[in-house]
Design a protein that fits this description.
The complex is a heterotrimer of chains A (267), B (326) and C (319). Chain B is of the alpha/beta class and 326 residues long. Chain B contains 10 helices and 12 strands. The relative contact order of chain B is 0.14. With 319 residues, chain C is α/β, with parallel strands linked by helices. Chain C has a domain of 163 residues: 3-Layer(aba) Sandwich (Rossmann fold), CATH 3.40.50.300. The chains are: A mainly alpha (267), B alpha/beta (326), C alpha/beta (319).
């Protein structure tokens, strides 16, 4: 097994985020929701390493606590589209024909609209909040997974080891689930990890726009939205959550790259 | 000799691609005429060679024989039973009897499955041995194809091309078949390794009493391995006879050209005149009449008029040439 | 017969992440006018790398030894001299004509390009010469063919077009790397006869790389057998085939079907890795004539009979 440098760095960043999300109270020096009127908009100091916001809440503690929400967003915004899209892609790729033609038109329809615009449309209809964000992202985000899975299944279905399985009289579920799926799923899983980086950005964007996590919940996008009004006077309010987003995104991207090498099917 | 397997009037066409403009013009969809009216019987215990150049349909024929392709017309019968009319259980039984070895040593094994799992799966699905005996049987199969016992725990990428072909052979043998259809099993291998695999196949054939259908473009291998040979050109069998006799006195002009074109190992410069002129026609638009007539040195007016049937003319075996008698 | 190309002690080392790969190691041969030299070997034998090293087409490889082109040191040539030699004096034909031809340019233009690069002909002269070349390689209806694109050609016709391009500047030597491997046997036959005919008519030299001993037997005057980057044996085709003096040559001939035997004489094992060169003979682990001396020291090339050179300790035992 060759573990690449990118996997090492990416894994380290993700591990940090995971620990912060699992036990935020170990690290957060303050309660993220408690106001401190003694230190309103205080700059970074020995007490408040990342400073405080306009209500005196500790930015470091809020950033740490937000990782739980953002990690959840990263995972859920990917896992639901992955499962739905993967299943659709598998069926479409295997059956082809009319099913494939209908799938093609449906994909055309969805990709006509910019991803974010469509998600925002769904959230606007369903109402703001994280659960509705997940529903919206699943409705729109399954498409790339289905396309990728379909293409992989088509390649695998043409291969001789699948033909060998058919000559051995194996039934369809065995061939599809035991032979095709494990081979086709690997590139899709790698894509999914990389996609989590974008999911973090999406979650933050929606939080920023007020469509995702709702205040006073600490979420990086919400924190930046709060901080932007004070950017000239208290830049730390938006800066540190911003850095957290960048690091998390980097973590997922690097891990995705590293996994791509590690999971590449050796021929 | 009993006939084990039979193809009768086998025809398989594949739809070709048609551009947007042709579609708008409502031009007819092009058709690749892979196989046309193939009649062939496979006798128990023999090795039948199927030889031809690209586009002759030999691989399509192989895939029809093992049930990977359903023919458009015609039937494949195994031990008298029509493959198309088989129920699920009957078909499973058919697959147990008729196995295949593939050309590509890299694509024909599931890269994520260990060699042992690949063999065990075939054994389990067909209930060849009791569950408890599967591991032992896997070891026997590996020994049969001369792979070390520890091969079972390894994945395909750890093996060389020749070793992978051995694994493919072991997988086919796992279900104890009567017939093995081998589609260019050694053409991806180097000469020295090719000889190892050829010898292994010959040895297993003798030991297990296998019937072998050996598909290849290599006439030297056909001569070496087979008792009967079918020469194919553009989707049809043009000559079918005992290998030794057919190589000694080929009757179809295409067979003659093919034999003359094969580089021999005896040193001696070839003359300037090619064995046959012209290019292989496209199976999208085979020439009318005898498909070989545009390249044939002795073609007459009648050759382009009708397709000559594969039948015994003046010699001892069937030839599809109007002029074979003269 | 005047020597065109002389290669001595050619070695090619690739530096990879996993260390050095000795792709070619101590290869030497020469080709004269009107002569066809066949280089035969299995995959990984270094036969194609040798061909590319001669024209310095290898990037990122360390090439040492001597390559002499009509008395001139090729490895010391500057870029401009090299450009004039490649294509101008030495033409090249590759295995995959579709990869070597530019898919978006008509064939005529690709021939003309070669003529612009290597001749002083004017536009009319180039057109005339292009037609001549197509005729020379047996492509009928030249005028129409010049305007067509590679995808409108069949595999055999593409290879003919490649040969026409290689011949554009009247090279003295043609290097052909597995030119018929991708072709059907009847088309291979046509192309081999064409190449042989061109050598006889134009007095060119030809180096033909192939894995097929049959191609060597019927097309070449002399043969060089390679194994694991090293030269095993060279000599005129007939004596080498009749009485090989290297154990590998003998084994390779024995492994070929179609000689009337029941079982082929397979060579056990597989080709060695090239990152750790053997101290002795590279073929020793698979060899039926293996002696202690074979593992101890690398056999040197030596004359075993007039015109036949072999690097095998068992050369005498084989005679």
């Amino acid at each position: 097994m060759r573990v690449s440098l990118s996997l090492l760095i990416g894994g380290f960043l993700l591990a940090l985020m995971l620990i912060a999300a699992a036990v935020p109270d170990w690290f957060a020096p303050f309660d993220p929701l408690v106001f401190d009127f003694e230190a309103l908009s205080a700059p970074p100091s020995g007490d408040h390493w990342f400073g405080t916001d306009q209500f005196g809440r500790d930015v470091l503690s809020r950033t740490i606590h937000a990782s739980r929400i953002d990690l959840q967003i990263a995972v859920f915004c990917v896992i639901f589209p992955l499962v739905l899209g993967g299943a659709i892609g598998l069926l479409v790729g295997w059956y082809g024909g009319v099913v494939d033609a209908i799938f093609g038109r449906l994909v055309d329809l969805v990709v006509t609209f910019p991803f974010l615009v469509l998600v925002i449309f769904f959230v606007a209809v369903l109402g703001p909040g994280l659960v509705n964000v997940y529903i919206a992202v699943t409705c729109v985000g399954w498409v790339p997974y289905a396309k990728l899975m379909r293409a992989e299944v088509l390649v695998q279905a043409q291969s001789d080891y699948v033909a060998a399985g058919r000559v051995l009289g194996y039934r369809m579920p065995r061939i599809v689930l035991r032979h095709i799926l494990p081979n086709a799923a690997r590139p899709v899983l790698v894509y999914a990890v990389t996609d989590m980086a974008l999911a973090i950005l999406l979650g933050s964007s929606l939080g920023y726009l007020g469509l995702g996590a709702q205040p006073p919940t600490a979420e990086w996008g919400v924190l930046i939205a709060d901080g932007k009004n004070f950017f000239t006077t208290a830049p730390w309010m938006a800066l540190f959550p911003g850095v957290a987003i960048v690091l998390a995104g980097l973590g997922f991207s690097l891990t995705g790259d590293g996994l791509a090498d590690l999971l590449a099917v050796k021929r | 000799m009993t006939i084990l397997m039979e193809a009768e009037g086998l025809t398989k066409h594949f739809p070709g691609r048609r551009g947007l403009i042709d579609m708008a013009r409502r031009a007819p969809r092009p058709v690749v005429q892979a196989l046309t009216e193939i009649n062939l019987d496979i006798r128990a215990g023999e090795t039948l060679g199927i030889v031809g150049e690209s586009g002759c349909g030999k691989s399509t024929l192989a895939r029809c024989l093992v049930g990977l392709h359903a023919p458009d017309r015609g039937t494949v019968r195994f031990a008298g039973a029509d493959l198309a009319g088989m129920t699920g259980t009957e078909r499973l039984g058919f697959h147990r009897q008729v196995q295949m070895i593939f050309q590509d040593p890299y694509g024909s094994l599931n890269p994520l499955m260990s060699v042992g799992d690949t063999l065990a799966e075939a054994l389990a699905v067909h209930n060849i041995v009791p569950k408890a005996a599967i591991a032992a049987r896997v070891g026997e199969l590996l020994a049969m194809v001369r792979l070390p016992p520890d091969a079972a725990g390894r994945r395909p990428h750890e093996f060389s091309g020749g070793q992978r072909q051995r694994i493919g052979i072991a997988r086919a043998l796992a279900v104890e078949p009567k017939i093995i259809v081998a589609d260019e099993p050694v053409s991806a291998l180097d000469v020295s390794v090719q000889a190892q695999i050829v010898n292994l196949l010959l040895e297993l054939r003798a030991r297990l009493g296998l019937t072998l259908v050996f598909i290849t473009h290599d006439l030297r291998l056909v001569r070496h391995m087979t008792q009967r040979v079918a020469v194919m050109y553009l989707g049809r069998v043009v000559e079918l006879g005992p290998t030794a006799d057919l190589f000694a006195t080929p009757r179809h002009p295409y067979t003659r050209a093919l034999l003359r074109a094969v580089p021999q190992l005896t040193p001696g410069l070839r003359g300037r005149d090619a064995a046959v002129r012209g290019e292989l026609p496209s199976p999208l638009a085979p020439p009318p009449g005898c498909a070989f007539h545009p390249r044939c040195g002795i073609a007459e007016a009648g050759c382009s008029a009708s397709v000559p049937a594969l039948e015994v003319r003046s010699g001892a075996w069937p030839v599809a040439c109007l002029l074979a008698g003269s | 017969m005047s020597i065109l190309l002389d290669v001595a002690d050619l070695a090619v080392v690739f530096h990879t992440k996993r260390g050095k790969v000795h792709a070619v190691d101590g290869v030497g041969f020469s080709v004269g006018r009107g002569e066809v030299l066949g280089i035969v070997g299995e995959s990984g034998s270094g036969k194609s790398v040798t061909l590319r090293a001669i024209t310095r087409l290898l990037h990122g490889a360390e090439v040492t030894g001597r390559v002499t082109w009509q008395g001139e040191d090729v490895l010391a040539m500057d870029a401009e001299r090299l450009r004039r030699m490649r294509g101008g004096q030495i033409g090249m034909v590759f295995q995959e004509p579709m990869a070597a031809l530019n898919p978006v340019l008509p064939i005529g233009l690709q021939i003309t390009e070669a003529l612009v690069a290597h001749t002083d002909l004017d536009a009319a002269g180039r057109q005339k010469r292009a037609l001549e070349l197509l005729d020379l390689v047996g492509i009928a209806a030249g005028r129409t063919r010049l305007g067509q694109f590679p995808h409108e050609f069949s595999g055999g016709m593409r290879q003919r077009a490649m040969i026409a391009i290689a011949l554009a500047a009247n090279p003295a030597l043609l290097l052909a790397d597995e030119p018929t491997t991708a072709l059907d046997v009847t088309i291979q036959d046509q192309i081999l006869r064409l190449l042989r005919g061109l050598v006889d008519d134009l007095g060119m030299g030809l180096v033909l790389v192939t894995h097929d001993l049959g191609v060597i037997a019927e097309t070449c005057d002399r043969v060089a057998v390679m194994y694991a980057g090293r030269l095993c044996e060279t000599g005129a085709v007939a004596p080498v085939f009749a009485a090989p003096r290297h154990a590998y040559t003998k084994a390779l001939l024995g492994a070929m079907p179609g000689q009337g035997q029941d079982m082929l004489v397979a060579i056990p094992g597989m080709a060695p890795r090239l990152d750790t060169p053997a101290a002795g003979c590279a073929f020793a682990p698979r060899c039926g004539y293996r002696m202690p001396i074979c593992d101890a020291g690398r056999p040197l090339l030596r004359d075993v009979s007039p015109g036949q050179v072999s690097a095998c300790h068992a050369a005498e035992a084989l005679a």
